[in-house]
Amino acid sequence: MQRLLNFKVKSENNLEKMRASQKKLEEFDPDTGKMRFKPTIINRSPNLRERPVWIDLFEISKKQTSSRENSPQRVLINKNSQQITEKIRYKQYKTIFECLGPINGKITYGNIDLNNNDQKMIEILNPLLQELAESDIVLDFSQFCQAIDALIKVLTPQEKWYLIFSFNKPKPV
After folding, report:
1. Cα-flanking dihedrals φ and ψ of residue 4, to 5°?
2. 96: closest CA among 123, 117, 127, 126?
3. Span 76-106, pLDDT tens digits
4. Cβ distance 159 to 151 under 8 Å?
5. Which CA distances in Å does 37 have to 27, 34, 40, 41, 50?
6. What is the Cα–Cα distance from 97 to 103, expressed in whole angstroms?
7. β-strand partners of 103
8. Contact 132, 108 (CB under 8 A)
9. What backbone phi and psi angles, to 5 degrees, belong to 25?
10. Can you say whether the dihedral through the CA atoms of 121, 123, 127, 133 is positive or negative?
């Protein structure tokens, strides 16, 4: 039994010597004989991460979005561009107003022809039309523009785009 223990101790010592010599060979370049480069990392503790990295990244992005929300938004619209979009919007409102069939420059729910108009436009304008039907309001063009501006604030971007840029007056047959 003693022989086995002595053999085990000797073989472990030999293995340690071999590993140490192997480590020295790994530290030095066999071609040049110079020590290989070992980068040193400063201020890095092995237990730096106590929680998963995605939690920290989520908190960082949360802070960035909250700082963006708190900072005032700068509008970078040129005055000429704003005038052009106002003209386009005015023309489109006029087209929509005329499609609804004003009588003496005013519209009511009773004089709107829902069947001969673009169905998508009617669907988009449905909240405004329901309000006209319920309250029996008479709108002239300026009041109609104010109502459309209020409606546009609650529309989806696709619906806004359709009303302002894509909708064209149906051509008479």
Report:
1. -65, -40
2. 117
3. 778 888 899 888 888 888 888 888 888 888 8
4. no
5. 8, 9, 10, 13, 30
6. 11
7. 106
8. yes
9. -65, -35
10. positive
pTM (two decimals): 0.51
Say which residue the tokens 């063009």 belong to. Answer: 141
Three-class secondary structure assignment of 96-120 = HHHHCCCECCEECCCCCCCCCCCHH
**Pair of tokens at residue 163:** 């009303």
Question: Alpha carbon of 55 to those of 58, 63, 64, 95, 110: distances in Å?
Answer: 5, 12, 14, 52, 58
Secondary structure element (H or E) that encloses residue 139, with its range? strand 139-140
Report the alpha-carbon distance of residue 124 to residue 130 in Å, rounded.
Answer: 11
Do residues 115 and 83 make contact, with C-beta atoms less than 8 angstroms apart?
Answer: no
Q: Which residue has the tokens 């909708």?
A: 167
| Distance between CA atoms of residues 33 and 27, nearest Å | 10
Residues in the chain: 173
Q: How far apart are CA 91 and CA 97, in angstroms?
A: 10
Percent of the chain with pLDDT over 90: 6
